């Protein structure tokens, strides 16, 4: 089985968030760039400073690069590292959610607003109050309520927030050392999508015995790359397991969980990180993900790819074609 081709090769792209707006498929990825910074667990080598938006009319067809939609120098609160973004549409406006380090080096989530899916996006002057860590993913439910999922351990700093306040000394612990795993976070978004209107709560993932996944369960516990989609009335929370390099999912009857662990979607790809989105387009379901094949395996120079996924009668996800070994 041949591997997939990157959707674009003229720039490095990663962390793809795919959405259908006005009948077109839009992709909001990180824009990886070359740097001399050596790889470390902090993720300093992921030193991105702008976002491009891409669109396509068909999967496998031509991809349009709409150019720079938002850049670091235009965001007053950001010091560095524009990491994995997501986008949403609400009441005819388009919102780009993005994580970045503030001037104190703490990751926060910002939001920027546009009239068109491809931007340009105008950033709010401050990060979203109450937001922290990385990898925002938005989900607008059928009743119009929008949710913001976020979080990432290790370089994503989630372990620093276990008391509700940022504790720098907790950084080097990387994650919980025993007991339940640290969870991704979720909160409701306001009607104008620029603030949180509920408490931030844990996205709890349960094992087959109904117990929260343990911190020692590196094959299944949440690491980063939250994504939410809905299929046949069920909420699917998917995520990366980080150091074990799997993309997994869990399901619930509520967007707030708790979620039941469901299985793996993607086995490890070339490169350390793995990050994805899931979207329905023209009657088929697709997994957008990245690997490092375009750079010959450089961890911070990644490329976005697409695979079709299918559901069985129980709603279990698998790839439409087997993943090459
Ligand atoms: O792209 C930078 C970081 O790498 C993302 O925020 C993570 O999800 C990982 O893909």
UniProtKB/TrEMBL annotation:
<dbReference type="InterPro" id="IPR023296">
    <property type="entry name" value="Glyco_hydro_beta-prop_sf"/>
</dbReference>
<keyword id="KW-0378">Hydrolase</keyword>
<protein>
    <submittedName>
        <fullName>Glycosyl hydrolase</fullName>
    </submittedName>
</protein>
<dbReference type="InterPro" id="IPR052176">
    <property type="entry name" value="Glycosyl_Hydrlase_43_Enz"/>
</dbReference>
<feature type="site" description="Important for catalytic activity, responsible for pKa modulation of the active site Glu and correct orientation of both the proton donor and substrate">
    <location>
        <position position="135"/>
    </location>
</feature>
<dbReference type="GO" id="GO:0004553">
    <property type="term" value="F:hydrolase activity, hydrolyzing O-glycosyl compounds"/>
</dbReference>
<keyword id="KW-0326">Glycosidase</keyword>
<dbReference type="Pfam" id="PF04616">
    <property type="entry name" value="Glyco_hydro_43"/>
</dbReference>
<comment type="similarity">
    <text>Belongs to the glycosyl hydrolase 43 family.</text>
</comment>
<dbReference type="GO" id="GO:0005975">
    <property type="term" value="P:carbohydrate metabolic process"/>
</dbReference>
<dbReference type="InterPro" id="IPR006710">
    <property type="entry name" value="Glyco_hydro_43"/>
</dbReference>
<keyword id="KW-0119">Carbohydrate metabolism</keyword>
């Amino acid at each position: 089985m041949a591997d997939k081709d990157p959707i674009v090769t003229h720039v490095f792209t990663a962390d793809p968030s795919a959405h259908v707006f006005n009948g077109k498929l839009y992709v909001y990825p990180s824009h990886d760039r070359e740097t001399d910074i050596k790889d470390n667990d902090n993720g300093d080598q992921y030193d991105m400073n702008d976002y491009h938006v891409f669109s396509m009319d068909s999967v496998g067809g031509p991809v349009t690069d709409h150019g720079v939609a938002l850049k670091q120098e235009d965001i007053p609160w950001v010091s560095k590292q524009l990491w994995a973004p997501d986008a949403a549409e609400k009441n005819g406006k388009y919102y780009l959610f993005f994580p970045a380090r503030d001037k104190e080096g703490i990751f926060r989530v910002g939001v920027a607003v546009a009239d068109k899916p491809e931007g340009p996006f105008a950033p709010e002057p401050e990060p979203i109050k109450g937001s922290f860590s990385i990898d925002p993913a938005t989900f607008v439910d059928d009743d119009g309520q929008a949710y913001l999922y976020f979080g990432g351990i290790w370089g994503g700093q989630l372990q620093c927030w276990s008391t509700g306040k940022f504790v720098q000394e907790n950084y080097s612990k990387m994650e919980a050392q025993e007991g339940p795993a640290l969870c991704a976070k979720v909160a409701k978004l306001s009607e104008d999508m620029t603030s949180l209107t509920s408490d931030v709560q844990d996205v709890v993932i349960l094992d087959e015995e109904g117990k929260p996944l343990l911190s020692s369960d590196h094959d299944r516990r949440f690491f980063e790359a939250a994504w939410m989609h809905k299929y046949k009335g069920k909420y699917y929370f998917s995520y990366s397991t980080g150091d074990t390099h799997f993309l997994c999912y869990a399901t619930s009857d509520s967007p707030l969980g708790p979620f039941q662990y469901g299985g793996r979607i993607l086995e490890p790809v070339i490169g350390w990180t793995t990050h994805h989105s899931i979207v329905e387009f023209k009657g088929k379901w697709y997994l957008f993900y990245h690997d490092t094949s375009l750079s010959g395996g450089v961890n911070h120079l990644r490329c976005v790819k697409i695979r079709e996924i299918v559901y069985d009668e129980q709603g279990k996800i698998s790839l439409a074609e087997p993943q090459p070994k």
